[in-house]
Amino acid sequence: WKILMGGLPILEVPENITGPWKGDVTIPCTYGPLEGYTQVLVKWLVHRGSYPVTIFLRDSSGDHIQQAKYQGRLHVSHKVPGDVSLQLSTLEMDDRSHYMCEVTWQTPDGNQVVRDKITELRVQKRESLWGYETTSTVKQPWDWTTDMDGYLRMTRAGPGKSMPIFAIILIISLCCMVVFTMAYIMLCRKTSQQEHVCEAARVHARETNDSGETTRVAIFSSGCSSDELTSQNLGNNYSDQPCIGQEYQIITQINGDYTQLLHTAARSKSVC
């Protein structure tokens, strides 16, 4: 660092800084050393509620971490004159806050000068799951790209990580297996239903056919024979025309019903 002549020390701190969740971040805080000004005190404070809380103190006795939650993961630079940047490791989401860098110098005449600057720390959390990435600040789509080796990869439209081609093929294969399995199950169910309908039609046709034959035989068995007609004519002097006409009508009706049943059974067999 170049030692400045005259004036007062000026702290250089960015307005905000973003660090990755579970990662490390450095919050810069620097100043140009002035001739005759000696650094005597360095503080880092964080805003919790309405008041800032001291989390780090450097004085003549050494470095002191003031909060237990920062033990083992907070460090302040000291090797380079004028660099008092804060380093935080293993960032948590509750580390998001406003941080204040405060430096005290002793002037050549024995007085003290205090300067402070505030910066905002943001913690970015990434969550990736199959062909998209969600962050705490922005959502960006995936895009197909080709890397330097000629391999096809799926990457975010903005800055981010890429998805290997084998993972893409695995996802597509799993989707195809699910679709084919569902189609096969639906086809089996449809075939089973058709077989059930055809079997019911066959049983119905068989029962109808057996019923028609039985009815026909029963009617012919109970019809008027020639001996009975002669006996009736001799005993009662009745004409045989009514008996013959009735039998003819019954036989005609049975033949018509039987023919209709045969057509119905034939249609059922053709459908199955």
UniProtKB/TrEMBL annotation:
Keywords carried by this UniProt record: Membrane, Transmembrane, Transmembrane helix
Question: For the Immunoglobulin V-set domain, which residue ranges apply?
Answer: 13-123
Q: Where, by residue number, does the polypeptide cross the bilayer?
A: 163-187
Q: InterPro entries this protein is in? A: Ig-like_dom_sf, Ig-like_fold, Ig_V-set, VSIG4, VSIG4_IgV
Listed GO biological process terms? negative regulation of complement activation, alternative pathway; negative regulation of interleukin-2 production; negative regulation of macrophage activation; negative regulation of T cell proliferation
Record keywords: Transmembrane included?
yes
Q: Which Gene3D superfamilies match?
A: Immunoglobulins
Q: Which domain of life is it from?
A: Eukaryota
Q: Which Pfam families match?
A: V-set (PF07686)
In terms of CDD domains, this protein maps to: IgV_CRIg (cd16089)
GO MF terms held by the record: complement component C3b binding
Q: What is the protein named?
A: V-set and immunoglobulin domain containing 4
The organism of origin for this protein:
Saimiri boliviensis boliviensis (Bolivian squirrel monkey)
Its organism's taxonomic lineage begins at: Eukaryota, Metazoa, Chordata, Craniata, Vertebrata
